[in-house]
Design brief:
The protein is mainly α. The protein is about 30% helix and about 0% strand. The model has no long low-confidence stretch (mean pLDDT about 80).
Length: about 70
């Protein structure tokens, strides 16, 4: 609906940037709420994909010093 010009959506910037259709993006003021994102993984089955995924999540959402 949004890409057809018939709607409005509030989505993360990452989602908007992946749209195949051109979108008009407006930044919102930072919200006062916080969210927790948890990742569970097995150390004994670590793969390059899992390591890269965790690094990307830490880089985008992690707090300083989080492991």
């Amino acid at each position: 609906m949004v890409s057809a010009g018939l709607g409005v959506a509030v989505v993360p910037e990452m989602v908007a940037s992946m749209s195949p259709a051109p979108l008009a993006v407006r930044r919102l003021e930072p919200a006062a709420f916080r969210r927790t994102i948890s990742v569970v993984h097995r150390d004994d089955r670590d793969t390059a994909v899992a390591t890269t995924s965790r690094a990307l999540l830490r880089g985008g959402f992690g707090r300083a010093g989080a492991q």
